Amino acid sequence: MQAAIYDGKELLIKEVSNPKISDTQALIRVRAAGVCGTDLAIVNGSLQTPTPIILGHEFSGDVVEIGDDVDPKWLNKKVTSEINSNIDFNCFYCKQKQYTQCISRKALGIDIDGAFAEYIAVESYLLHEVPETISYEKATFIEPLAAAYQIFEMMPLEENDKTITIFGLGKLGLLITQIAFLKGLNLIVVDGSHKKLNLAKKFGAQHQINRFDGVNIADTIKTYTNGLGADIVVDATGNPLAVNDVLASCRTRGKIHIKSTHGVNTPINLTDLVVRELTLYSSRCGPFKKAINGLKSGEIEVEKLISKKFDLKDIKKALNFHMKNPEYIKAIIRI
Asked: Which CATH number does the domain 156-282 belong to among 3.40.50.720, 3.30.1490.20, 1.20.1200.10, 3.40.1280.10?
């Protein structure tokens, strides 16, 4: 099969053997995969991974083969997959049903081979059926949409949580924007792209701040919030230099939620965090069922987040477009 393999220096298309499945695994014929900021961080060298490795973890496809211990219902199903594999179901976190934090976990496309390939083998407990009303391309948003929902799973809303500011309007930031709007929050968004800011406005953001307009972001946010700052501030920038603006934009005793996984050291004003008694949250993978229902119901719109589609052989071009074009939101790899 054809696969996009990162060898520690560059991403190359190579011919490799099809994955061999174990008794507990399913073989998926990949139909579409999305380019994620994590893929870019790996190729840029800022996020270290084992190499060589097939990248890609946002994908959908069809189950074409199953192991002896896999429920026959999965054969020929249209599916997507969670990314946390190698779960031992016996560690401290598994006993709390916190499987995404299993001590033994390995993430598809980050720790072990992923989906930028014609086929991928996954454990059957990771599978989720994709409704026929959701296209293969839209289904690549299920994993990041689940991560967006996870913000509000980890960070429950309280009575005084009225205003949220989202820094960074890539794919994840725009998904968070839509969920926050559905939750009735007043929305302020920050990005350097007029296109993305306008799209966030269509998704319900009342205030848009372009970070290249020369304004003091925190002061501007205070003008929208009676001089206090936002009740909740989310970092989805992938930029370590944004974090202190994120802190400064939050009201005293407000909530900060970090979503960036850029893999590099991040300077943070701990004194401000402590003195103003800010609460720091973080989250990663989330509930796939909620994400699937969000797409199926039409509450979450993703078509406008697809910037361009590429064939697998052109994956290097897809990553280069992302790195050089700040207007890009998400590229889809058709396989």
From this structure: 3.40.50.720
